[in-house]
């Protein structure tokens, strides 16, 4: 089955700097990779996703890149702001099913 | 995406008792799921709530402990039975929507067992 590893577990950046979070997956048949943001006490929110036929996707200050050969995908946040502080989770589908495996999470702290 | 609500939002329960959590969606959805998120941890799938049939449980979770109902396409319940302090967690329902069964989450139920 699918295995998802996420790094780093914590990340502190200065406001305005960039942040990068990386996930690796094991199942080469996985074809869709979402990223979730979870603020303290709130539900996980889908913020961006990428399909396996695309190498990169951008949405304003956030972007996701996918390297299918290496089986990893990354979340990039540019010009970070204090409101970007949250826990971020990647996920990947279990091959042949409708179920998702979530990464262990990255706690991002943006320092003002 | 569908609007998802959960009740209760939080509860404090005595060990040995049971709590039923409700999940309501504002439109019909085929797939509904229940997750557990222990303090400071990631999301772990408990089961898939199937409409009209028994839920499908993940490894480590059993029906006697976590009975699930799915009477229609907009509603599901999860019961946490015979609770112990180890059951203290956030329980989240989600729906699967779109071509990739994208997961959208309810606000969660924060359960504390004393």
What report would you give on this structure?
The complex is a heterodimer of chains A (112) and B (114). With 112 residues, chain A is mainly beta. Chain A is 0% helix and 56% strand. Chain A contains no helices and eleven strands. In chain A, strands 2, 4, 5, 9, 10 and 11 form a six-stranded mixed sheet that branches. The radius of gyration of chain A is 13 Å and the shape is globular. Chain A starts with a strand and ends with a strand. The mean pLDDT of chain A is 95. Chain B contains no helices and eleven strands.
Subunit organisation of the chains: heterodimer
N- to C-terminal distance of chain A: 41 Å
Helix-strand topology string of chain A: EEEEEEEEEEE
Q: Mean pLDDT of chain A, as a whole number?
A: 95
What's the main sheet of chain B like? Answer: 7 strands, mixed
**C-alpha geometry of chain A:** globular
Which H/E pattern describes the elements of chain B? EEEEEEEEEEE
Q: Which percent band covers the strand fraction of chain B?
A: over 45%
Proportion in helices of chain B: under 10%
Number of strands of chain A: 11
SS summary, helix count of chain B: 0
Helix/sheet category of chain B: mainly beta
Q: How many runs of DSSP E, i.e. beta strands of chain B? A: 11
* Helical segment count of chain A: 0
**pLDDT average of chain B, as an integer?**
95
Write the layout of secondary structure elements.
The complex is a heterodimer of chains A (112) and B (114).
Chain A: E1 4-7, E2 10-14, E3 19-25, E4 32-38, E5 45-51, E6 56-59, E7 62-67, E8 72-77, E9 86-93, E10 100-102, E11 106-111
Parallel strand pairs in A: 2-11
Antiparallel strand pairs in A: 1-3, 3-8, 4-5, 4-9, 6-7, 7-8, 9-10, 9-11
Chain B: E1 4-7, E2 10-13, E3 19-25, E4 31-37, E5 44-49, E6 56-57, E7 68-72, E8 75-80, E9 89-97, E10 102-105, E11 109-113
Parallel strand pairs in B: 2-11
Antiparallel strand pairs in B: 1-3, 3-8, 4-5, 4-9, 5-6, 7-8, 9-10, 9-11
Short description:
The complex is a heterodimer of chains A (about 110) and B (about 110). Chain A is an all-beta fold and about 110 residues long. Chain A has strands spanning about 5, 10-15, 20-25, 30-40, 45-50, 55-60, 60-65, 70-75, 85-95, 100, 105-110.
């Amino acid at each position: 089955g699918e295995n998802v590893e996420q790094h780093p577990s914590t990340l502190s950046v200065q406001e305005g700097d960039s942040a990068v979070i990386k996930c690796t997956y094991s199942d080469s048949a996985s074809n869709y990779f979402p990223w979730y943001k979870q603020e303290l006490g709130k539900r996980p929110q889908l913020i961006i996703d990428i399909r396996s036929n695309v190498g990169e996707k951008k949405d304003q200050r956030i972007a996701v890149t996918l390297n299918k050969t290496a089986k990893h995908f990354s979340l990039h946040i540019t010009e970070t702001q204090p409101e970007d502080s949250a826990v971020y989770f990647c996920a990947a589908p279990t091959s042949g099913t409708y179920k998702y495996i979530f990464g262990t999470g990255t706690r991002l702290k943006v320092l003002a | 995406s569908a609007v998802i609500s959960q009740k209760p939002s939080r509860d404090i329960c005595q060990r040995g008792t049971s709590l039923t959590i409700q999940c309501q969606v504002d439109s019909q959805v085929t797939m509904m799921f229940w997750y557990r998120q222990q303090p400071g941890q990631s999301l772990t799938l408990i089961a898939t709530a199937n409409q009209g049939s028994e839920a499908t449980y993940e490894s480590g979770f059993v029906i006697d402990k976590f009975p699930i109902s799915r009477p229609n396409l907009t509603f599901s319940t999860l019961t946490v039975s015979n609770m112990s302090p180890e059951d203290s967690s956030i329980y989240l329902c989600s729906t699967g929507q779109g071509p990739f069964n994208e997961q959208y989450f309810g606000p969660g139920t924060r359960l504390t067992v004393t």
